[in-house]
Structures are given as C-alpha cells and as structure tokens.
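Researcher: I'd like a structural prediction for the single chain below. Treat it as a standalone chain; there are no partners to consider.
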Amino acid sequence: TVDADQNHLFWGAYVSAGWVLTGERRGYDRAAGLPGGVRPAAPFSLRHGGWGALELALRYSYLDLQDGGVNGGRMNILMPGLNW
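Model: Treating it as a single chain, here is the predicted structure.
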C-alpha cells in the first residue's frame, strides 16, 4: 500500500540527434531560442529530379516510475528515424 501523504520522485530524460544527409542545415532563431525547419536545396520534383531533404534521426528516452512503494517500472527506448 502506498501512503497518500508520501511524496514520490519520478524522472525521465531524452536526447536526440539528427543529421541532414542531403547537406542542408537546420535554421535557428536566436531571439526565440528555437530550432527551425530544414529548407530543401532541391525541393522534391518528379519533373526536375529533386529529392528534397533527407534527415537521419536518433532519439534515446528513459523514464523511471519507481520510488518507495510505487512500482511503475522503468522504460528505455531507442528510436531511429528518417525524415523526408
């Protein structure tokens, strides 16, 4: 049984990375402190042969939901991705 007055500490984190295979760079808004999108150098076109931008991405996530009498488990996720 878990005491309702007891405080519990649960935590999690993630880290992600991406590499644009077609050479473009992700923009960054310094004033807002936010990353921007990727603008393709050669937008996708069947007529002109442009492929657009391809980004290889990887993310690792961890979540710990165990503390005291609470056994919510732990989670590890490694997630690859390809963004077009």
